[in-house]
Specification:
This protein is of the alpha/beta class. It has eight helices and twelve strands. It folds into three domains: 67 residues; 48 residues, no CATH class; 195 residues, hypothetical protein PF0899 domain (hypothetical protein PF0899 fold, 2-Layer Sandwich). 30% of the residues lie in helices and 19% in strands. It starts with a helix and ends in a 5-residue tail after the last strand.
């Protein structure tokens, strides 16, 4: 059977197996026992044919290599195959040597064409064989018909994702749980500030006359406001075929991780920048009442003044700075008049700090300003941590053997004391 016939027969077996699979898949059912046996038989037949195809292809390749290596060499060796080829070009290398005219002429110098056993130091004339060392075919690893046919791909199983920004704000803020769709807390608006030294009373009935001391204590006052924050939902989904999830088991884990990471990135961005419109959180930078520190002289001066403002106006002790990596780089590279790094240079050890307070780098904070604050005064209420759900009920996914993989989380966020945070301008002249 020729190579082409083997290939056609293998194709027919695979098509027959594929037809049974398509029928079962269209009917949304498993194989019957009879179908399973048929499919197995077709696959066995295809495997046997594949082995035969490889053997025949290997034989053909060997023939091609023999022809290529022997290009220009007369490989005829039997008398009945010599035909009309000149004697000097017939047979093996040895036969062609003894039939060469130069060798025959030299041999005739001896009686009866026989070299006597007593002859010493004789040497026959050289006989040239122009095609004794023919042009060789270079073996390379680039071609499947050369050494490349023996190169095996090394499948490592390594998967390297693109990478995402580090998530840090969850570790700074307070986290609590809620079982409701809204959370309420009370925020103090004004505090008692009426306290004063009071003299002892010297009259029982105070009339206001000169010299009388009422001894009356001042009445204090304070006010509050009730703040309500609603639970928001952050979600994302991706379509996939059932076959893809079944055939590539690693794929499901990759999808779940990607969806979960995307949720957390969006949530971190909302904690800082959410504008409070629609289903957006109200982030720290858009919370009414936070303090601001304008640019003053340079970064060092501005950042130090921000600490003073937060402590004296906001009455808060900061727990950390949050700034963009580019701004932290600018601070790290600051030098004094003697070209020395203010903050110790590249060999500095220990945690990153600015004026003694830890620095946390986050890409959620845009370049050009930083946030200094008591991050315990920002609270996340978890209603539903990140979850992954799979369903085929989306549109026509059921009849197309597709599923929707959905990731979502629900939470509320609020700043319980806005004056515990200050936005610090790091851009000169802005």
């Amino acid at each position: 059977m020729t190579l082409k016939e083997l290939q056609e027969k293998r194709k027919a077996a695979l098509l027959a197996a594929r037809a049974i699979c398509d029928a079962a898949e269209k009917a949304q059912r498993d194989f019957s026992a009879e179908e399973r046996e048929k499919v197995k038989g077709y696959l066995d037949e295809a495997s046997e044919l594949q082995a035969e195809i490889k053997k025949k292809a290997a034989d053909d390749d060997l023939r091609k290599q023999i022809a290529a290596i022997g290009d220009g060499i007369d490989l005829v060796t039997t008398p009945d195959q010599l035909g009309g080829v000149p004697a000097a070009q017939k047979g093996t290398i040895g036969q062609r040597f003894v039939n060469a005219p130069a060798f025959k002429e030299w041999l005739e110098r001896f009686p009866n064409g026989m070299i006597p056993t007593s002859a010493k130091g004789i040497m026959s004339p050289p006989v040239e064989f122009p095609t004794l060392f023919p042009r060789k075919t270079l073996l390379t690893g680039d071609s499947d018909t050369s050494a490349g046919a023996f190169v095996q791909t090394d499948y490592t199983g390594i998967y390297e994702p693109l990478g995402r920004m580090p998530l840090v704000l969850r570790n700074l803020v307070n986290t609590r749980q809620t079982q409701s769709d809204t959370v309420e807390f009370v925020r103090q608006v004004t505090q008692v500030s009426q306290a004063t030294p009071v003299a002892e009373a010297n009259v029982t009935t105070y009339s206001g006359a000169s010299g009388e001391v009422s001894g009356e204590k001042p009445e204090g006052a304070m006010s509050f406001e009730k703040v309500t924050e609603t639970v928001k939902t952050i979600a994302v989904w991706i379509p996939a075929t059932k076959r893809a999830l079944s055939d590539a088991s690693q794929l499901r884990g990759i999808i779940d991780q990607e969806l979960s990471d995307d949720l957390n990135e969006e949530f971190e961005d909302q904690l800082v920048n959410g504008n409070g419109v629609g289903e957006n959180f109200t982030g720290i930078l858009n919370t009414s009442g936070i303090l601001t520190q304008a640019w003053d002289t340079d970064l060092i001066t501005t950042s130090r003044k921000a600490i003073t403002t937060l402590r004296t106006t906001g009455r808060a002790t900061p727990t950390a700075w949050v700034m963009n990596p580019a701004d932290m780089e600018t601070i790290d590279l600051l030098k004094d008049g003697d070209n020395r790094y203010y903050w110790g240079g590249p060999m500095r050890e220990g945690p990153r700090t600015l004026w003694g307070y830890p620095v946390v780098e986050s890409e959620a904070k845009a370049e050009g300003s930083a946030i200094l604050g008591d991050w315990r005064k920002a609270v996340v209420w978890d209603r539903q941590r990140s979850t992954i759900a799979v369903s085929d009920s989306h549109e026509d996914f059921f009849i197309r053997n597709m599923v929707a993989i959905l990731a979502e989380m629900r939470a509320a966020f609020g700043v319980i004391r806005p004056t515990a945070f200050i936005e610090v301008d790091f851009a000169a002249g802005s």
